[in-house]
Amino acid sequence: MTGPNDPSRPTTADRARSAFLDRFGEAPACVASAPGRVNLIGEHVDYTEGLVLPFAIDPRAAIAIGTGTDDRSVFVAHDLEVSAEYPGAPITVPDPSPDHRFVNHLLGVLHAAGGTDGKPLNVLVTSDIPMGAGLSSSAAVEVALGAAFAAFFDRPADHHTLARQAQAAEHEFVGTPCGIMDMLISAAGIEGKALRIDCRDLRLTPVVMPSPEEAVVLIVDSGVTHRLSDGGYADRRESCERVQAVLAGSLRDASIESLADADLSERDRRRATHVVQENARVDDAVAALEAGDLRELGEILLDGHRSLRELFEVSIPELDCIVDTAADLRDEGCFGARMTGGGFGGSAILLVESPSIETVRQTVERRFADAYGRTPKSMIVHACQGVRLES
Ligand code: GLA
After folding, report:
1. What is the CA radius of gyration of the chain?
2. Integer Cα distance of 376 and 272 in angstroms
3. Of all residues in the chain, what percent are helix, strand and coil, respectively (each to 5)?
4. Is residue 271 within a helix (H) or strand (E), and if so which, with residue range?
5. 233 CA: nearest ligand 1 atom
6. pLDDT by residue (tens digit) across 214-268?
7. What domains can be seen in the chain, in order of their start residue?
8. By three-state DSSP, how is residue 34 classified?
9. Which protein residue's CA is at the shortest distance from atom 5 of ligand 1?
């Protein structure tokens, strides 16, 4: 993975600023950046009013914007070396071109934010968040654009508004029926803290993460690219919705007993069981963090993974290999691990006692390489600040 922690490397926002200047011959009017995320626990529950516990991570996406020149709007994904152009103001419907997939994330945010009043706009994106690794690279771009746009057009937007706009872009322009966790943590992340998000009322409760001297979170990327619009995610969401229709209420209020009594397919019952137990695990994880009990937290992460693998069926063998290795290293400084994000690929997180990090990392990489013939990319991450204006 790229090295966002490398101090000699220009920041993502600096890269956006100078690439904008190169491309458009003038400095951008506004630059904003927003981070990717990992979710500690609380998976596949945000779209049924559940509880999640993500934190914002070091790698960021940055957006530079300015007024369009020559009555054209130009969108540039600098790292992908692709661009899209429109006469006049940005279009207010999704761009159907398969070459312009990236632009719908941006057009969707502009639309949700109320449009540009007919003004042409130049937008340039750079990112240090690996794509397809399940670290919410898209949400970060959308949240950063929302913030840059709000500053440029002087239409103030709070974290919740930025998150809702980003989610609307995903639903209406990209076609991904995601929850709100990714964008809300990218907007509202706090340095050194995870956020317990109650997805029923969107209340945010900061929870202190272990100090870096004590424990760190290692991300290991399975290298299997996941795309949430590919169907497995929507299928899981539909299962949850079917269960809610039978229960005539939210899964947030369900219990194992109420599921046992309901007329459900065995598969929907399994998936709903994951949701009910996962919500409870989030508060158990918060309690473990507050008590400084990292062994307990590690066990909760492992339980969560088992549930995603066996009940919710969104893990893959590559992620299981990483998590199983981590579980075997419990006596050697690894507290626990689980896949993070929507699944079907993406990354696993490992909670590791700081002095043991290199031993654990090497063992996980070696076992993965033995099984799959390639070394997975990995990166240590910290809980970081959410969206910010950079100029
Ligand atoms: C993806 C979605 C989120 C959430 C997770 C699973 O990251 O974007 O809204 O549903 O999957 O917890």
Report:
1. 21
2. 32
3. 45, 20, 35
4. helix 266-291
5. 11
6. 999 999 999 999 766 578 999 999 999 999 999 999 999 999 999 999 999 999 9
7. 12-208+384-389 (3.30.230.10), 215-381 (3.30.70.890)
8. strand
9. 342
Half-sphere exposure of 2 (CA within 13 A, CB side): 19
**DSSP 3-state assignment of 148?**
helix
- Tell me if 367 sits within 8 A of 39, measured CB to CB: no
CB neighbour burial string for 137-148, b if at least 16 within 10 angstroms, e if fewer: bbbbbbbbbbbb
Confidence at residue 391, expressed as pLDDT on a 0 to 100 scale:
74
Rounded CA separation 353/160 (Å): 34
| Model confidence pLDDT, tens digit, residues 286-295 | 999 999 999 9
In tens, the pLDDT along 50-92 reads: 999 999 999 999 999 999 999 999 999 999 999 999 999 999 9
Among this protein's residues, is 79 annotated catalytic? no
**How many beta carbons lie within 10 A of that of residue 247, not counting itself?**
17
Say what the pTM is. 0.96
Choice among 46, 95, 182, 303 that is catalytic: 182
| Ligand 1 neighbourhood includes 278 CB (under 6 angstroms) | no
